[in-house]
Amino acid sequence: MKNKLIIGLVLMLFVSKNMMAQERAITTAAPFLLIVPDARAGGMGDVGVSSSPDVYAQHHNPAKYAFSEAQFNLGFNYTPWMRELVNDVFLGGFTFANRLNERSAWAASLKYFTLGEIQLTDGSGNEIGKEKPNELALDGTYAMKLSETYSMGVTLRYIRSDFALKVENSELKTVNSIAVDISGYYQSEEDYYSDISGKWRGGFNISNIGPKVRYTDGGAENFIPTNLKIGGGFDFILDDYNTISTNLEFNKLLVPTPPVRDDLGNVIEGKEDNVGWVKGIFQSFGDAPDGFSEELKEFTWGLGAEYVYDRSFALRAGYFNEHDLKGARKYFTLGAGFKFKSSSIDISYLFNSSDINNPLENTLRFSLAFNFGDLYEGY
């Protein structure tokens, strides 16, 4: 499909976190790294840091792989993007995970985001060529149980953003970078409470810890989306066939908040955001122009629930919220999952509840997973 977009639109879509960003929304390079890829989490308000382990843990909390029940897990995901406007923009990828033994696991995944085919034009509207801008991330994870109820994971990520244009005098270049994730996951033993039993879960993931990048030679450096994800949940095990899981999750970008500047560019509120990426992580907890109250507004939160019958059918629902000052994303989600022996399929749907358009409105998301090999009981 030909999308007659000017070059500036391409940059606006991908250098910022959200093209509908509000007055003090924090912007980053490679925002595709924050897009939830799987339909299971997509049906639960995009939460997943403390949900039960599955093959898609690579995005949410890689430490969960150490608690995986199956020896091998293979997953494929596909998410159409801005489906109401175009039909060739999407996020896709796959993940493979291997439970090495009762204490450790490794996983690898590929996430690919494409803008489809874009027709470039000059200032007079003359066609000057076609491009297919895309971004990808290639990950590798090792996870280990440090006790019977707690595990940690380390992930190394290669990031590539290819917006380089094959036109005369183009200053855009392909960006290559690396990043690291550090994650942890807690899963209690099954406890008994009157007529039901249950399990507590908790987790955190500090993702995309890495250096700043440039999209043009000599241009400004951009932070990649270093992100803190933390949450908890509880599984209500009603009987041998019925389980209800609830999860609450918080996210915060560990990127400096843009300060308020005067006409000369001097900072008059907040802190200077042109700092190194390490300092930026620590500064992000106390640099908002309006102080602590604004720092709290930078946390997004999501609430998700999942009902599972006989480990073969699941219904899901959730809600995601972001403050109006920081992006104004708000939406409800619904989802379902079906398991057939060693395979499963998940679907989800998003209902926008904000005045800001959402690129996933009226869109079905799909995930397909396969579990095979020896099973580890009791997890």
Question: How is this structure best described in words?
Answer:
The chain has about 375 residues and is mostly beta strands. The protein has a single domain, classed as Porin (Beta Barrel), CATH 2.40.160. It has five helices and 22 strands. The chain has helices at about 5-15, 40, 55-60, 275-285, 290-295, and strands at about 5, 70-80, 90-100, 105-115, 120, 125-130, 135-145, 150-160, 175-185, 190-195, 195-210, 215, 220, 225-235, 240-255, 260, 265-270, 300-310, 315-320, 330-340, 345-350, 365-375. The chain has a 14-stranded antiparallel barrel with strand order 2-3-4-7-8-9-11-14-15-18-19-20-21-22. The chain has a three-stranded mixed β-sheet with strand order 1-5-6, with no helix packed on it. Strands 12-13 form a two-stranded antiparallel sheet. Strand 5 and strand 6 form a beta hairpin. The N and C termini lie far apart (about 45 Å). The relative contact order is 0.19.
Short description:
The chain is mainly β and 379 residues long.
CATH class group:
Mainly Beta
Spatial strand arrangement across the major sheet: 2-3-4-7-8-9-11-14-15-18-19-20-21-22
Helix fraction, binned, reads: under 10%
- Oligomer kind: single chain
Order of helices and strands: EHHHEEEEEEEEEEEEEEEEHHEEEEE
End-to-end distance, in Å? 47 Å
Name the average pLDDT: 87
Number of domains: 1
CATH superfamily: monomeric porin ompg
Radius of gyration, in Å, reads: 21 Å
Largest sheet: 14 strands, antiparallel, barrel
User: Using DSSP, what is the number of strands?
Assistant: 22
- The number of helical segments is 5
Q: pLDDT below 50 for ≥5 consecutive residues: which ranges?
A: 1-22
Outline type: globular
CATH domain topology:
Porin
Q: Would you identify the CATH architecture?
A: Beta Barrel
Helix and strand content put the structural class at mainly beta
Beta-strand content estimate: over 45%
